[in-house]
Amino acid sequence: MSDNQDLRALVRTIPDFPKPGIQFRDITTLLLDPWGLAQTVERLTALAPEGIDLVAGIEARGFIFGAAVAARLGVGLVLIRKDGKLPGATVAVDYALEYGSDRIAMHEDAVIPGQRVLLVDDLLATGGTALAAARLIRLAGGEVAAAAFVIDLPDLGGGEALAADGVPARSLMAFDGD
């Protein structure tokens, strides 16, 4: 990960959101800046390993970056969504949250066995959603070649969790703390 201080300066920090003690990293200011948005897409695309067949964008902000990266790479986009949001036949997995669980899904025919997939999302925290997305891709017979994030919160261990699962995680910038 390079320092990407120019992009980092476009990310707004909102203290005590959504609850006291959390430093929320708000990318809406990055998205509003035309140069910043274009550079973010360009730099995320550069994180992709060779031979990617598909990009998988994780709901919801991963759709923004995933679609743009897929277009730059000339590959298709897989939508990883909350369960019940996709029409047609889907495959879904549950994953743990801090309090409870959630479920994500993708179309069962979205990934052809053997395809190499790049996961894309805006933020890596604990890695729970990205790990669940990797499980979905593997259930379909795909290979998760790497995961690319705009922001990593390394203190929360998501990068380590993905690495332990065999998924190289790359990000453009990191912020310490929550």
Automatic annotation (TrEMBL):
Coiled coil: none annotated. Gene3D superfamilies: 3.40.50.2020. It comes from the Bacteria. Catalyzes a salvage reaction resulting in the formation of AMP, that is energically less costly than de novo synthesis. This is Adenine phosphoribosyltransferase. Homodimer. Its EC number is 2.4.2.7. Keywords: Cytoplasm, Glycosyltransferase, Purine salvage, Transferase. It catalyses: AMP + diphosphate = 5-phospho-alpha-D-ribose 1-diphosphate + adenine. It is found in: Cytoplasm. GO terms for biological process: adenine salvage; AMP salvage; purine ribonucleoside salvage. Residues 48-152 form the Phosphoribosyltransferase domain. Pathway: Purine metabolism; AMP biosynthesis via salvage pathway; AMP from adenine: step 1/1. Signal peptide: none annotated. Belongs to the purine/pyrimidine phosphoribosyltransferase family. GO terms for cellular component: cytoplasm. GO terms for molecular function: adenine binding; adenine phosphoribosyltransferase activity; AMP binding. CDD domains: PRTases_typeI (cd06223).
